[in-house]
Design a protein that fits this description.
Elements: H1 3-6, E1 11-22, E2 25-35, E3 62-67, E4 70-77, E5 89-95, E6 101-110, E7 113-114, E8 121-124, E9 129-130, E10 151-156, H2 160-166, H3 172-180, H4 193-198, E11 202-203, E12 208-209, E13 245-247, E14 254-262, E15 270-275, E16 297-300, E17 311-314, E18 322-332, E19 349-359
Parallel strand pairs: 1-9, 4-16, 13-19
Antiparallel strand pairs: 1-2, 2-5, 3-4, 3-6, 6-7, 6-8, 10-14, 11-12, 14-17, 15-16, 15-18, 18-19
Helix pairs in contact: 2-3
Protein name: Lytic polysaccharide monooxygenase auxiliary activity family 9 protein
Pfam family, one: LPMO_10
GO molecular function: monooxygenase activity
Length: about 350
């Protein structure tokens, strides 16, 4: 490891377990903060770090989060020019039933090499406290800069919407899905305006996305939206299986890609990828409870250039063999206008992809 890489990594890690409300669900996570450059953990709201340079500070954009000695998540991290707190902090989802204790550390990737790890920090469920949003920065925009339309679906591995709707795949289950669906918008698999207006996906007061509350029963693939109910079809003897993407079970790394119809960056937006638990059976449908609680890959905000946020290479996909599904959520502070201008004027929204894969 070169001396420049060794000195460019995170240090002084702080970690706490916290919980958030997501509709009727309580979800837990680990709130990480660390020193990077002159940006301190829990850096004050003013003044900026000495090396901030209007967001152009030479901080890493890629990290690995290790939990209990295992690489559990790759993080691609971007930030707005006016806010330095996202440049050295991160929320690690733990789901609704976390373990009693976790030991967490992280390292950055700089110039193709990993830095040294931070020290390892223990967090306990019995010490979890409610989440509270960071203090607003002095020069933050009055209204979120994330209202531009966003659309898309997973391309590698290919999503069900990509196969059945975009590509009009001839597999019988895809043909039946197209017959059942009332929407042909492969790039807009989301809960729908009526549901999002009734229960906002974006919590503007606390600055996070609520998506868990939209998934009840085996309706993950459609987000519970009847317009896409064909995507919830389960394989059987007459329909066969969904088209699958083959992934190498022993690969050192994987590269995923996304097909955007509209790309925009925004400080509230994030990509998250989840994998089904070992032993999941596609014939039983796909419920949120079937997923591992920790997403193995996350991107926050997105890069300024679309081509830098279209593909992600990572080495944190859990080991699996056989059939599995990958669930991807891309969401943030966009969507329909709120009736009274509240919630930062927008309901929030997210787009959902289910990718059927087979590990060989």
């Amino acid at each position: 490891m070169s001396s420049s890489v060794a000195g460019a990594g995170p240090s002084g890690l702080r970690a706490d377990m916290k919980h958030r409300a997501d509709g009727n669900h309580r979800t837990y996570g680990i709130h990480l903060r660390w020193q990077i450059g002159d940006n301190q953990p829990d850096h004050p709201a003013w003044p900026p770090p000495a090396d901030w340079d209007e967001g152009r500070a030479p901080y890493p954009h890629q990290y690995e989060v290790w939990i209990d000695g295992v690489a559990r998540q790759t993080l691609y991290l971007y930030w707005p020019a006016w806010d330095w707190s996202p440049a050295n902090s991160h929320w690690v989802d733990l789901g609704e039933a976390p373990e009693a204790e976790y030991r967490v550390k992280l390292r950055a990737r700089v110039d193709g090499q990993f830095t040294e790890f931070t020290q390892e920090v223990a967090v306990r469920r019995d010490g979890a406290v409610p989440w509270s949003a960071p203090e607003p920065r002095r020069n933050a925009p009055a209204v979120a800069t994330t209202a531009s339309p966003r659309h898309g679906t997973m391309d590698q591995p290919r999503s069900r919407a990509g196969a059945a709707i975009r590509d009009t795949d001839s597999a019988p289950i895809c043909v039946e899905a197209r017959r059942l669906n009332t929407s042909t918008d492969w790039q807009e698999v989301l809960p729908g305006a009526e549901r999002m207006l009734a229960d906002y996906p974006w919590n503007d007061a606390q600055k996070y996305l609520e998506y868990r509350k939209f998934f009840e029963g085996n309706t993950v693939a459609s987000t519970g939206n009847p317009a896409f109910r064909g995507l919830d079809l389960v394989p059987d003897g007459s329909l066969g299986d969904w088209p699958v993407t083959v992934l190498k079970a022993d690969a050192d790394s994987h590269t995923f890609s996304y097909d955007y119809m509209a790309y925009h960056t925004g400080e509230s937006w994030s990509h998250r990828w989840f994998l089904t638990r070992q032993g999941w059976d596609p014939a039983g449908g796909l419920a949120w409870e079937d997923l591992e609680p920790v997403p193995f890959l996350v991107e926050v905000q997105g890069a300024d250039r679309e081509e830098d946020s279209t593909q992600w290479e990572f080495a944190t996909l859990p080991h699996r063999t056989g059939r599995a599904a990958i669930v991807h959520v891309w969401g943030g502070h966009g969507g329909p206008d709120t009736p009274d201008g509240g919630n930062g004027r927008k309901t929030g929204e997210f787009f959902l992809s289910v990718c059927d894969v087979e590990f060989r």
